[in-house]
Amino acid sequence: MAGTTQYGIFIADDIIFSEQIPLAHQSHLLKDAEASFANLPSFTFLSQSYSDEYYQFHSYRIVANESVSIPFYCKAKATILLYILEGECQINEESHIKPDCFLIKEVAKGRHFIDINYGIHSLLIVHLKEEIACLIEERAINAIFHLPSESMVTTQMNKLATCMTNMLSGYVWKLHREVIILDMAFQSLELSGVKFKSDKTSNRNPAYETMISIRDYILHNLDRRISISALSKQFRIVSTKIRSDFFEVFEQDLREFIRSSRMNKARELLLVTNKSVEEVAWEMGFETTLGFSRSFTLHFQQSPSHFRQSIKYENGENNS
Predict the structure, then answer these.
(1) What is the rounded distance in angstroms from the CA atom of residue 149 to the CA atom of residue 306?
(2) What would you report as the CA-atom Rg of the chain, rounded to the nearest whole angstrom?
């Protein structure tokens, strides 16, 4: 048994993924996506993901040697937009999607199956975060829509692909891809006649506004030593409820959100300022540079010093 492996929003059974992408598949890679590859007797599977503020984006390219049913386990309830660029697929033997269609589906927590036939299949999944998903009309959920223009999605994907050759990086590139992906999602929804509810009539989690306040507080105080117990006192909510409500709203562990937010801010400072590693460590609330370097390396698989040196090299500042 290969065990359980996470890819995108799913956790798959008995599939081993590697970050080493075969040369024959590298032409399908997207700029800065988290990519992994699996090679099984019945199919190959290229998975690529972005996780940004309002969505998680997943691109899956499956080359099947026969009809296969791929199991996956969804960690939490998710509202997804599923697009087919090539081939076709079926989810849980109920939603048959072809290239001229897209599906809005609420995927429950638990085990599911994607069924595909022999051939090449390219799938896009936009997993909408709670603050957007809760605004889509209920009648549109679990419905299949015809794309007004199949080329619209292809055009947006081509924009992502051409970004491989441009000089955008860091925060500017992150904003650029957010615009491309959200534009694709909203164009397909609006042109298909999908309506949105107002914020006042949405069925948000009752703790939504409080969790937004907690998230904003964290993002504006990354230079402090923020703990869940400190947040509990600050917002007068027991720690276990803060953690459960935060996960329910943002589908992300609160402790992991604090850690990743600090690391992303530190990387941004190293990228756009001339502050030393020591200064960045201090500004991010670390007591020692060594502790900061360890955390940074664990998160990005690269030390702060090596990250900064790689930026200089990319910008042609390396004199060696």
Answers:
(1) 45
(2) 21
- pTM equals 0.62
pLDDT exceeding 70 applies to what percent of the chain?
85
**HSE-CB for 187 with a 13 A CA cutoff:** 17
- Distance CA(197)–CA(200), nearest Å, equals 8
pLDDT tens, 51-67? 887 888 888 899 999 99
State the amino acid at position 269 in one-letter form. Answer: L
Give residue-wise pLDDT tens across range 240-265. 999 988 888 877 889 988 988 888 88
CA nearest neighbour of 239 among 248, 225, 250, 228: 228
d(CA 89, CA 80): 15
Exposure string (b/e) for 62-98, b if CB count within 10 Å is 16 or more? Answer: bbbeeebebebebeeebbbbbbbbebbbebeeebebe
